[in-house]
Amino acid sequence: MKEQILILGGGVIGLATAFELSRREYDVTVVEKASCGGQASGAAAGMLAPFSEIGEDPDDFFQLCLDSLRLYPRWQRDVKEASGLDFEYSESGSLHAVYHEAELLGLETRQAWQRQFGVEAEIITGDRLRQLEPDLSEQMIAAMHYPEESHLFAPDYVKALESACLRQGVTIAEQLEEVTVERWREEIVLRSKAGRTFQGDRLIVCSGAWAQELENVFDLRIPVYPIRGQICAYDLPVGRINHIVYTSQGYVVPKANGTLVNGASEDIAGFQTEVTKKGIDRLTNWNKNIFPFLQEMTPFHTWAGLRPATQDGFPLLGALLEAPHVIFATGHYRNGILLSPVTAKAVADILDGKQNYAPLVSCRPERFSY
After folding, report:
1. Per-domain residue ranges for the chain?
2. Where are the beta strands (DSSP E) in the chain?
3. What tens digit of pLDDT does each residue of 186-242 get?
4. Which CATH class is domain 91-148+225-310?
5. Which pTM does this prediction carry?
């Protein structure tokens, strides 16, 4: 008889994990109190850009992100094939742009240590920079070009994951309003607000920004906090901008549907997902410093989502030492889309009893309780 796996949370991490586990012949049920992909997952800009985002030093988190990026070419094909749905996946490359001479040293330092991981990165300036992006602001003096960085259209990716799960026999129970973990030490029992029960052999916790609610259940410190990320989008002809452009103030991402996504303004607002004028103004007030033509344009769409941030920036990823049938996979902050393939693989490998994946040492779910 197949092992019964319950996944608590139907965001991109929960759905990706369910997809991978179903491919390995597990019997999987995803339990979601709202709608699958309804928070950080569907609201994301879909950047797969670890080299631009992580500039300080190589650590386990960087390795996790790098490994996941390199899983994506095969992973996205598998999701499309299994779901029967298409979604944008663009190997556009990126430009990590800087404004001042003093910032060049930072690019050189980043380039040096990233090369040790086989990262293709080139600092470009002057006419060459404008050849890649003719509309780029003259204030930009240089950029690191990362051909390997990519992006996808997050809402369609999440829909494809859900479809792939359903077509492979995963049970998805959503709109449950509340889900309580009633038992977990020897057997897994979850109960919805309406009294519906779910039983399983193992539990995967993918609760995202709501994971902290489980502290008393598991007698663990789970410092995962909701960070509101606000984003806006512009109508833009396809081909006018061709790369992700990343700066210290934020980023813009051109999409194949003729939109330019501009993000992200972040603030701490509890579980509120309302869009604020202050948050969007922060984006519209500075994006002209990337592309001056944006000063004359008005966003046609604004939205917000909650990003699950941990106290140290690393996700909670791994099995509980005293209850290895409970696995945490949560707290991915703004990298849930990027980390979905490697997280799914890591969780599935844990269930399969394979040797531990080295970067998980820094992601132990109990690390805040010692």
Report:
1. 4-56+155-222+312-363, 91-148+225-310
2. 4-8, 27-31, 47-48, 89-90, 94-98, 122-125, 142-146, 150-152, 171-173, 179-183, 188-192, 197-200, 202-205, 224-235, 244-247, 250-254, 259-267, 301-310, 316-319, 326-330
3. 899 999 999 999 999 999 999 999 999 999 999 999 999 999 999 999 999 999 999
4. alpha beta
5. 0.96
